[in-house]
Amino acid sequence: MEAFFLYSGMSQDRTILVCAKETPDTYSDLSFSNGGVQFSNPRPVLSAYDASALEEALVLSEAHGFRVHVVMVGPERASETLRKALAMGAHEATLLTGAPEEADSAVIAKILASFVQQFGPDAVIMGRQSQDTDVGLAGGMLADHLNWPWTTNAIGIRFEEEAFWVKRQGDSAQEWIASPIPCLITCSNNLNDPRIPTLKGIMASKKKPMHIEGIDSLPGGDVLSTLAPTTSIESLTPMPERAAGELVEGDLETLVDALKKGLASIPETGVDS
Amino acid sequence: MRVCAVIPCFQEELRSSALEVLTKSTEIAASSGGRVEAWLVGPTAERHSLKAAQYGASTLRIIDLDVDSKANGVRVSLGRRIVDAVERLMSQSSPEGANGASSVPSTVPSSVPSSSPTLLLFDNTELTKDVLGACGARLDAPVIADVVDLSWDGHRCIAQRPTYASKVMSTVHAEAPTILCSIRAGLFEPVEKPVDAASHHYESPKSDLLGQVLKELVAPDGDTVDLTEAPIILGVGRGVADEAGKDLVAKLATLIGGEIAISRAHFESGMYSHTLLVGQSGKVVAPRLYLALGISGSIQHVAGMSESHTIIAINKDPEAPIFELADLGIVGDLYQILPALIDALESTTV
Q1: Percent of chain A with pLDDT over 70
Q2: Between chain A and chain B, how many beta carbons pairs sit less than 8 Å apart?
Q3: What per-residue confidence (pLDDT) applies to B68?
């Protein structure tokens, strides 16, 4: 077992569970076909927000000796993405298969809740939303199912006196909120820059435990495997394009005049034309 | 159907996003032959009830959360209290679940037949994002978050929401006795529609906060700008490279009454507060005017401001992607243009 457990004074069974999702690479080019969306990069990625959650869990692990376990609900091929999480440094991973492909946040949260209750981590850390749908509901749903304190949109996390201190970005200020364990935290991707797996990490990941479990084997699995999503995506269409605007080039006077006119067309600016 | 505008009340003024939620609620209720309720939750709930009636809510349900608020307008670890309050209002106001409503007069009209669904509408502030999922789980109801349009076809809620980094519009349906939905701020013009309203007061739930405490409030520079509320935003990008540029932007902001936002470039630079970040990972805004200053227009930034009503961009690079969505694009050097513009504005406004 990793050496730091020996001198960190903490038992190795303290665990942070990172809930992760794989998404299409939404920053690659996309095209529409048969009512669906195709991305030019066919390889799914670890959702950027979950990558930040994992990075933060690894930093906390290095400082305090937590074991980091990553769980993902997805098809079997998602084990490739989970392997990347292990290459980044997570100790162990579980892939939960058998969820309906069109599962929404509510379905995923119920599956995760069952897994978390069985697993009993000290904290759940996850992205504040997923990179593809930007929905941002699963964290709050999971926390409520677990009846745990939660903090969303973390931009800083530290562990002190058996509590997780989270710096949360709010609407007009930031706040430090402390939650005793167990608790749930959702992360902004402004929290950190997730590490790139090293060659050594990639080699090590091949020997790390990866469990593949059907959701029907979880507590309440008979119900979980029949859950139907309550929201459905009916269509995906290109965003309505904004009408092409005017592009002004020229000498300073021309530019300033155009700007002034532009500002004057918005009454709220108080600029006279 | 019953349409309920859920309005967290923690500020002196009712947020304009709350008025938008009320207006959208009124529109959906009118199209479905339903009525509008305002669920006012928080220490300033009572104060905002008049305004809610002015914007079309004929039933006001008020929970005056006894919050030990340390600073005006800032949440004191309130998530669970809001969720508990919404649950209480749901169970005590629906015709089926009206038992045990000690603080509710028995004369509460239960004109809504039990087959008629309830739609709970929220805004999409960080405060709402913190509680929306938990509310959905608590009520075991479908949730559609951050929509830019919403309608009711008699059976289903039909919503449109940008997805895939705002490159794709997704049409989402939900059909259930209770549906929750949050709408993006800045897209729906608040319209006054004064009605006679009946107020009902509910006891504040005794929430178990599970040991969670607010340790410290960090309000950068004592400044608590709420970008989602601002009608004019000056977005500052990499092109504003130093304190001199920052001063110019500040001066222009004062002249046109705008608030300053930043792109990811300035999240790292340390020149501005992180609270000001606009983009997929920051605030999502839709002001009347977004003035993009030295912003190239990365996908991540655009996802946070592409719904702005008017976009004016200044950039040195005529190929900058921001020009593809700008209504007016100015190709030139900020450090020449801004001083000249400020001079021109000062000479006409004095």
Answers
A1: 95
A2: 289
A3: 59
Minimal Cβ distance to A170: which of B74, B257, B281: B74
Tokens of A182: 């167990």
A-interface mutation test, from B307, B330, B349, most A Cβ less than 10 A away: B330
Residues in chain A with pLDDT < 50? 1-11
Instruction: Give the model's pLDDT for residue B340.
Output: 96
Residue A199: both structure tokens together = 């060659």
With a pLDDT cut of 90, the percent of chain B lying above it is: 71
The reply to whether residue B173 touches residue A231, judged by beta carbons under 8 angstroms, is yes
Placement of tokens 């084997």 in the chain: A217
Q: Is the pLDDT of residue B96 over 60?
A: no
For B15, nearest residue in chain A (alpha carbons): A171
A206 Cα to chain B: minimum distance (Å): 31
Mutation choice for A interface testing from B13, B90, B130, B171 by most A CBs within 10 A = B130
The predicted pLDDT at position A240 comes to: 85
Distance, in Å, from the CA atom of A67 to the CA atom of B159, rounded to the nearest integer, reads 41
The predicted structure's pLDDT at residue B75: 46
What integer is the mean pLDDT of B51-73?
80
Could you report the per-residue pLDDT of B324-336, keeping only the tens digit for each?
999 999 999 999 9
pLDDT digits (tens, 9 = 90+) for B293-348: 999 999 889 999 999 999 999 999 999 999 999 999 999 999 999 999 999 999 87
Residue A119 pLDDT: 96
Residues of A within 8 A of B146 (CB-CB) are 134-136
Preferred mutation among A104, A108, A134 to probe B, highest tally of B CBs within 10 A:
A134
| Chain A residue closest in CA terms to B170 | A236
Residues of A with Cβ-Cβ distance to B143 under 8 angstroms: 105-106, 137, 231
Structure pTM?
0.89
